[in-house]
Structure formats: C-alpha cells, structure tokens
Amino acid sequence: MLPFLRDDLAQLSAYTPHAGQAEKAVVFDQLDTNESPFDLPDFLKAALAEQYQQAVEANRYPDGGHLRLKEAIAGYAAESAQLSEVASDCVSVGNGSDELIRSLLIATCLGGSGAILTAAPTFSMYGILAKTLGIPVMTIDRSDATFALDLEAASAAVADSHPPIRVVFMVHPNSPTANALTEAELTWLRSLPETVLVVVDEAYFEFCQQTTVADALQRSNWVVLRTFSKAFRLAAHRVGYAVAQPALIAALEKVRLPYNLPSFSQAAALSALANRTALLEAIPSLLQAREQLSQALAADSRWQVWPSQANFIYVRLSPAGLDRLGLEDQTAGLVQIFQKLRSRGTLIRQTGGGLRITIGTAEQNQRTQQNLAAVLDELSLAATGSR
Ligand SMILES: *Cc1c(COP(=O)(O)O)cnc(C)c1O
Q: Cα(231)–Cα(234) distance, rounded to whole angstroms?
C-alpha cells in the first residue's frame, strides 16, 4: 500500500464491470447489466451525429447549468407522475445516477456526520460509494419469501445508530430481486423523521410505472433518482437525474463537479426525451418476454422464480433443485450454473444469493432458456451419476 493513502482503502477493490467475464473473445449475450437490448434507432443516431457536426462546439465546455435538459426532464417527470407541473429547480442531473448517489452521500454523511441504511440484497453502488467516502453502511435483511423489508429491524436501526442514519436507500423496484416497494414499506418511509433523507431509486420506473415523484415534491426529506441508462437506451452516455424540493437540489448542485455532463450526453438525453414514444414502445414486448421466460423457468421445479416488476428476473435453485443437483449449498450451485452458462455464451449476474437475468431480444431470451435448461440437466445428470 502506498504510504500516503488512507488505511481503509486497502479493504476496497475497484468496481469490475461484467464480473466473471474472463476472455473478451467469446460473443456473449450480455444479460448481466439490465441495459436495453436495443441500440437507438438509426434515425435517432443519424440526428445525433448531425447535431454533433452542426451544434456541439467541441472546444467549448458544456452547458454547466443544464437548463434545457432540466426543463425537459421536469416535463417528463410531471408526465410520468401525472402532475400538472414539476419546476426545473426540482431537478439535478448527474453523470449517471451513480454521480448523484455520491453527491447525496457527500452532502449528508461525510466526515463522520452520518451513516446510511440499505436492505440486502440491493444495488451495490450505495455501499461501494459510501465506503470510498469512509461512510458507515448499516444493512437490514429482507424476507426470503417476498424480499419485503423487515420494518421492525429497519425502525430499530434508525432509532439507534451511531453515527445516526442520515440516508435510507431504496430501489423501487429493487435490484436484484425485482420487487416494488409495498404500501407498508412506503408508509414506513413516509413516517421517517425529517432528519433522515429517503432516496427512492427509480432506475426501472419505465418498466413498472410506479413512482414516488409526488412524495419528493411534497416532502423535504425525499429524493427520487432515475436514469437514462435502462429504458431510454443511453447507458453509453451516462445521464441520471434527481427530483426533489429545491433546497435539496441546491445542495446537490453545490457538491457536484462543474461540467459533470458532456455536451453530447446532454444532446443525447434531450433527443431521447423528445423521441420517448418511439423509444419506450419497446417496453410492452420486453415485459411479455419477461413473463414468458419467468413461466418457462417456473415450470421447472428445480427453480424458484420471483415475480418481477422490472426488465430482469431473479431466480434461485429450489429445495427440489438443490436435491436433484446433489447440493446442500445454494451458492455452490449458482457459481456452477453461472460459469457453465457463461461458457455457452450467456452472461448473467450472480448476486445476492441468486441469479439476476436481464431480459434481452427474443433470440437472446430463447438462448437463455435453452442454456439454463441444458446446464441444469448437465448438473443433474452429473449428480445422479455420482450417487
Ligand atoms: C442501473 C441502475 C442505476 C443506473 O445507474 P447509472 O449510473 O445512471 O447508469 C441506478 N440504480 C440502480 C438500482 C440501477 O440498477
């Protein structure tokens, strides 16, 4: 370790995209990061290329105030929550919602002033970013059957934590488990004191159409995060946004980097919003494909499949499946399945004690289904052979 570095960095490792992807040579069905399987339509790419030629001044810094983009996002946020208006000073934009998560942490918990609360399993970035800032992370469990929060444990954690819990991070619907917040969970979040910030990460909003934007506008301690990386097909451009009351937005603006969003990314996000009908048209068939894959897996008693409100599904081996595979340990089975699947060209995510599978194109989903069945048969046969 370099002698000038913070001691606690020794315990951290750099984020690895596509964990487990060893060689680059094989063409994978990349179903591990919940992106849209569809690139932008050609007409939109051509229009963006034209904008780059005609309107983007590469020698100039981007618009650091993001005013046009904020206005367009505010319009979409209002539409998505069926509100007549959202003011543009209720919106902040980030280099992906990851940047906004970090800005929220800096604005709330830095320097020993607070801890964060998350419910495992959930999106890993809250914990990863908090640790890089030396911020303590408290974790509560979810029900194994439904992935609902243990609200008693959550209340106890908020009531008695040193340093105090300043931020509760919730994904709605959650990743990797794909369940939306329940009414009881929302009621609990709304009951939290004003000294605790509630972050509702709606990265998958477009797939489930449930939103808490109205809470963010009414409550001083509530912020909604969303992203252009999933349904809007702009993961390459790194655009996320926050919706909250102006006082919290002003705090986010204080701690962000001056030119955090490149000109071309701003242009891409504006273009995606202007063409949202065309882009979001792909969603109903993705949801249909999700149901089809879920049902196909659920028909095999070796899987336990949870209902999904997002563009991915979450599965574990069922007790019968573990038995057929001759395994006592879920994780040992998942590791083997993940690896065998990868060698067949299907890359998914093994996380949170299960497998998270992004819904892809029709062909990709077909291959996922076939490869999963083949891998389980292979493992079941090997188990029978060794009995
Ligand atoms: C994918 C995802 C994001 C998006 O992050 P970006 O930095 O905007 O790409 C945020 N939150 C969750 C829970 C996600 O799954």
A: 8
Q: Which two tokens stand for residue 118?
A: 């998350």
Tell me if 240 CB under 6 Å of ligand 1: yes
Q: Determine the atom of ligand 1 nearest the C-alpha atom of 239.
A: 8
DSSP sequence for 236-297: GG-EEEEE--HHHHHHHHHHS-TT-S-HHHHHHHHHHHHTHHHHHTTHHHHHHHHHHHHHHH
| Nearest residue to 270 (alpha-carbon basis) of 36, 63, 2, 28 | 63
Whole-model pTM over 0.90: yes
315-334 confidence digits (pLDDT tens): 999 999 999 999 989 999 99
HEC profile for 183-197? HHHHHHHHCCCCCCE
Which one of 118, 123, 226, 232 would you pick to mutate in the ligand 1 pocket, going by the greatest count of ligand atoms within 8 A of its CB?
A: 123
Tokens read off for 298: 């659920």
Nearest CA to ligand 1 atom 5: 97
String of DSSP letters for 309-366: SSSEEEEEE-HHHHHHTT-S-HHHHHHHHHHHHHHTTEE-EEETTEEEEE---HHHHH
pLDDT digits 0-9 by tens, 206-247:
999 999 999 999 999 999 999 999 999 999 999 999 999 999
